[in-house]
User: What shape does this take?
Amino acid sequence: MRRRCLVLDHDDTVVKSSPAIHYPSFVEALKALRPERAGMRFDEFVRYSFDPGILPLMTEVLGFDDAEMAIEQEIWRSYTYTRTPDAYEGFPALFQKFRARGGRVVVVSHSERDVILRHYRELFAFEPDLVFGWELPEIKRKPHPYPLEETMRRFGLKPEELLVVDDLKPGMDMADRCGVDFAYAGWSHTAPAVGDRIRPLARHAFDSVEELAQFLEL
Assistant: This one.
């Protein structure tokens, strides 16, 4: 098996979380902190998440200070800890086949580890081999290379044995920094807003989870 490790984004790659959780919680935070921006549309939110990224959106574009960031995080957690989004069709079967062949599943996400673990337990009945989430220091989150470097170190893997799958640019940038192949998750709810920008830059692009499974020869 050439690809021994799948490095997956979580939100809008494996689960449909932005429409159900991240966007509505962000709008609620805007109503409290920047009411003049509370009309931000879903496609605008996705484009900002693509570039410059969710953290620069909050700290640079919107200018949240530390106290406002704490309020935003509290509102966000009130959604993430009480709601479980649906998974994209095809992942239960893909995980079952990939793991049966000895493949490892690693999650690199801007959601928190505890939330990701709960989603995997509830939706797929297993926990990923490693999770790198929002709780880590900023320098250890994607697009920084730490999650991939640590994954390769922990499991004795080479860059060509990993595949990063993400719907947004931070995952692609992380993969590029480590010489790891990147696949664009074209099935994502974010595709209409940013797909035409990221697809041409991706080495691989799939329009369904089934296409990803075929690429992995599952």
In short: The radius of gyration is 17 Å. DSSP finds ten helices and six strands in the chain. Strands lie at 5-8, 104-108, 130-132, 162-166, 181-185, 204-206. The mean pLDDT is 95.
